[in-house]
């Protein structure tokens, strides 16, 4: 696949001297869904704002569809739609009027059929004559997506699309994103949620403290994250582990009331059944069991440990 966005050696130092991005390189393929994952303050919004031409870079270069975002900014921006994190809409503007206006701003000819299609696919057609101030938060977010699509961009950025969004809207949004990808639109979204990346991304980029730590095919990353932990709460404290349980490398809590078993969730054999059998055979009674998937945070920790602070 050809690359549609090239980010080369991009750094950003804000006015106060804070280095929000540090020598970032990223190539985004045409037609893919790339999720940028990272904790608060990692630099996700700064990176997409630079690509969209809303924030000036300090050094490096960015091109969109072969157009440099500084020298050839009009051509670069015309290819981009952005759904911002914050809801910023004209309160007394009707939904359809807002879309017509935004399309006009990009110098695109009027196309009522296209705008109707955009509103219908976002379940907003019935609201086309409502003022945006009359809409619910979820509908406002749909309007933001509609506005970002109304000039037919080749690349769509969604900054934290799931922030403050209920499950139903999230699923609808994912469906719209998949349809757009099927039509050839390249999608870049930022998120804190690994589930969101798992649900829709083709590739995942992990960003932390202004650096891209990895960009990887999602399935490969999910395999890396397939580590799970099972916590087994015991009815009574266990003074010492019987030899028959040694092969499970169980950890014990300080109060001896909990055993922790680590296993690969995607492995062919998790060993859970035989562990339960061996616990039973040893006469160990269980009060409760719960499991937890290694989180994005765990991956961050494993990725960034031993690395000194990168910022000045
Ligand atoms: N205009 C600015 N002036 C100075 N510092 C800024 C400015 N904008 C952002 N920053 C800082 O740059 C860092 C990266 O911010 P950014 O918004 O890009 O992170 P993010 O990964 O999008 O975070 P979040 O998930 O919280 O939205 C943060 O520490 C932030 O405080």
From TrEMBL:
It comes from the Bacteria. Residues 5-234 form the ABC transporter domain. The keyword Glycosyltransferase does not apply. InterPro entries: AAA+_ATPase, ABC_transporter-like_ATP-bd, ABC_transporter-like_CS, ABC_transporter_ATP-binding. Keywords: ATP-binding, Nucleotide-binding, Transport. GO terms for molecular function: ATP binding. The keyword Metal-binding does not apply. Belongs to the ABC transporter superfamily. This is ABC transporter ATP-binding protein. It comes from Pseudohoeflea coraliihabitans. The lineage of its organism: Bacteria, Pseudomonadati, Pseudomonadota, Alphaproteobacteria, Hyphomicrobiales.
